[in-house]
Amino acid sequence: MADESRRIFHLSDIHFGLENTRALDWVRDAIAEEKPDGVAITGDLTMRARHREFAAATEWINSLEAPVTVEVGNHDMPYFNPIERFLTPYKRFHGMKEKVERELDLGSLAIVPLKTAVRMQPRLNWSKGWVSARALERCLAALDALPAGKRALVAVHHPLREVGTRGTALTKHGDKALRELAKRKVAAVLSGHVHDAFDILEDTDEGPVRMIGAGTLSQRTRSTPPSFNDIRWDGQELSVTVRNLQSVDTPDMQIDDVPADALPPRREGEPVAPIRQVPRVDPPVH
């Protein structure tokens, strides 16, 4: 029997414009040396979708020595050109267009995209996720077309979670998408956006769905150092190791749940604070 083991490096939220160059050199070297079967980048390649940021992102991503699939993040939609945002929102991806929302065939495992960043939505905060009927239909059609026995990783930018009220949900129609994915042979949903890693089971009426989030490779850290997920597939099960520059253990790198606001603590232009690890439990009271 052929070896069905596969290895995927899951990166997210690189934010060229406020990228962490040390982290990017480290990841690129790891890909060159360890040769994963595929690389999934779950969005927010840039900080403000500027041309120079996309140029830097394109050069770095095209230098990676592995098959790559790229999701579009909310920061990757044009900020300062509304006409382009509405008419040609993917125009600035032209240098890597073959990688955008690309399905990867990895033998007994496939990576299938599901778009959550949209050019507009009927609420004020356009940074949040939205699963359109069309995007979900395309994803489900791709999943249903997979050969018998093949499992899938679904790649999104925003976690598929209705955090908060219906009007301010983290990802609108995310609960519907999760229910549909629970009916299919989906090993996990890979996402970014929150800048901290997580690995949790989300219950739905159709059964649980595993949600795996990657941290950031930018200076915009939330509570943990820059990191990426090293995902192993043995043909039946997934295992996840969160790798980071400070050698913090994986359990201490993973948050317990998706935060309701899902925003990193610093805004553009603010000084970079020293990276520190936030304790997962309160210290004992003496």
Question: What is the highest CATH level, the class?
Answer: Alpha Beta
In terms of DSSP E residues, the strand content is: 15-25%
As laid out across the biggest beta sheet, the strand order is 4-5-7-9-11-10
Q: If you average the pLDDT, what whole number results? A: 89
Largest sheet: 6 strands, mixed
Q: CATH homologous superfamily, by name?
A: Metallo-dependent phosphatases
The name CATH uses for the topology is Purple Acid Phosphatase, chain A, domain 2
Overall, the morphology is globular
Which radius of gyration do the C-alpha atoms yield? 18 Å
Structural class: alpha/beta
Q: Which architecture name does CATH use?
A: 4-Layer Sandwich
Q: Whole-Å distance between the termini?
A: 59 Å
Helix content: 10-25%
Q: Give the low-confidence spans.
A: 270-286
> How many distinct beta strands?
13
Q: Supply the number of helical segments.
A: 6
Whole-number count of domains: 1
Reading the helices and strands in chain order gives EHEHEHEEEHEEHEEEEEH
Q: How would you describe the overall organization of this protein?
A:
- The chain is of the alpha/beta class.
- It has a single domain (6-253), classed as 4-Layer Sandwich (Purple Acid Phosphatase, chain A, domain 2), CATH 3.60.21.10.
- Helices cover 20% and strands 21% of the residues.
- The chain is built from six helices and 13 strands.
- A six-stranded mixed beta sheet has the order 4-5-7-9-11-10.
- The longest helix is centred in the first third of the chain and has 14 residues, at 21-34.
- The protein starts with 5 loop residues before the first strand and ends in a 33-residue tail after the last helix.
- The model is unreliable at 270-286 (pLDDT under 50).
